[in-house]
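Why run this: before we spend reagent on co-expression, it is cheaper to look at a predicted model of the complex and decide which construct boundaries make sense. The entries below are exactly what would go into the expression plan.
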Amino acid sequence: MSARILVVDDIEANRRLLKAKLEAKYYDVIVAENGEKAITAAKSDSPAIILLDVMMPGIDGYETCRRLKADPDTAHIPVVMVTALSEVEDRIKGLKVGAEDFLTKPVDDFALMTRIEALMRYNTVADELRRREASGMASGSLEAVDLEDLKKPASVLIIDDNPRSSVRLAKRLREEGHTVVTLLESGGLSAEAGRKAELVIVSLNAEKFDPLRICAHFKMHETTRSLSVIVVFDPHDQAKAMKAMELGASDMVVTPVEDQELLARVRTQSRRTRYIDILRRRVDHGMELAVIDQLTGLHNRRYMINQLDRLLKRPSAEQSPISVMIADIDHFKRVNDTYGHEAGDNVLKEVARRLQANTRPTDIVCRHGGEEFMIIMPDTAVEIACKAAERIRRAVAADAFEIEGVPVSLDVTLSGGVAAYTGSGESPLDLIKKSDEALYRAKSGGRNRVESVAA
Ligand SMILES: [Mg+2]
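The model came back. Tokens follow.
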């Protein structure tokens, strides 16, 4: 599926020109002739990128951008402002209302395509993370603290063998509050320098080292892969700039470097990198929430079913036995009724601790729900599993529980049901059902005991 781009311009010839250029690169292009229509299209057609003209009758490009960025439905769509040549003030104004990038008219093909490709790459990562977050848990918008984080000054590493341009650049960046380290040669380029920086500016004019090798270097190493790399190139060096983008550079600036443009790109790049970081952290956290029982810290039922499913589908499942034990705390309701739910929770936590202390590292200990736990024992025959289950039962029953807020020591016991996979195409639920039947026999047989279903 080709990515959709929304082109907004009040002059039809401009719309047609951009549309033709983008369609030649197989983008799906939709157009709007004013700000209001652009906002409607952004909501209904979810474009991946918006190219937005500044000068338009009615609401102009700035106001349109401001409204797009204020609406949670459209705030994430990158906006590229298209401004008339040499209007520096216009560009700054565009970035202030939240535009991600800008292009000057007449739009140069090279600049247009590289900007769009850079934004598309960023979109792909952000979309994937948003999708994973939504599938793991409810997706939310960025919190205030995250938004503040995005705006903080960046730590920048400048690699340029020309001390004059390097010093000038560093000075401008420092004036904006950024932290800057400069390197005049690549010999000093340690992983350390890269680790501390969030953003690297590499001069493609350097002669004392190979700047393209540096771009590749950052993208090749795990610790520096997520760095944003901005390359500075001479107008006649487009091919080199293109190569740098292919090697993973995130953005480029042509010489002579326009201060405001460079500052804007530094701001945009660091904002993007951090946005990706925030999303990634939230996805990781969401994944953890999705598989861990919050009370006991054990794996939850969802994880348990997934793992069982994975084990039963292993090619070797027919040869290597898999056993499971369901463990249910005896008369747990009495603890809750007598000492309250908090005491009950503490009993569950202590049982979880003892289960974990008395199982092998390869066993998977889960909270099945309520006062019921499950231990998955891969590569374990039912006879061995029964012995393990008996050991677990004793570990719980042996020493009385000292629970905070409970005046007496509690004698806690559990009953266990063990079952093994018979290799006849059983599902995780079949296996759970079998162990449940064994558990029922243990309960009706007097509790504080283990029963099994033979394979
Ligand atoms: Mg116009």
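Residues 1-107 form a domain with the Rossmann fold fold (CATH 3.40.50.2300). The radius of gyration is 31 Å. Bring this page to Monday's planning discussion.
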